[in-house]
Specification:
Distance between the termini: 45 Å
Number of domains: 1
Low-confidence stretches: none
Mean pLDDT: 83
Helix content: under 10%
Shape: elongated
Strand content: 15-25%
Strand order of the largest sheet: 1-2
Number of helices: 1
Number of strands: 4
GO cellular component, one term: nuclear pore
Protein name: NUP210 Ig-like domain-containing protein
Radius of gyration: 20 Å
Largest sheet: 2 strands, antiparallel
Organism: Rotaria socialis
């Protein structure tokens, strides 16, 4: 990607590498969530097939779904 400042004429160049997401990691600070507690912040990290971390996935849409533990155990 190239960009040029129209006022100064200065140009910059940036390499952009695009790859497939191989794994997604959910980062959190607690192992239990309680309905009456303050909300917990979750972060997602995506990795390619080589284990490299994607630097910008915050603009990808995703949807959280909470399931009953008994339902998850059956699968």
């Amino acid at each position: 990607v190239y960009a040029r400042d129209i006022l100064t004429g200065q140009s910059v160049r940036c390499d952009v590498i695009i790859d497939k997401i191989q794994t997604i990691e959910i980062v959190y600070t607690t192992t239990r969530l309680y309905l009456e507690d303050a909300p917990e912040l979750f972060k997602l990290r995506a990795h390619d097939q080589h284990g490299s971390t994607f630097s910008s996935i915050e603009h990808f849409p995703y949807e959280w779904k909470l399931l009953n533990a008994a339902i998850v155990d059956e699968q």
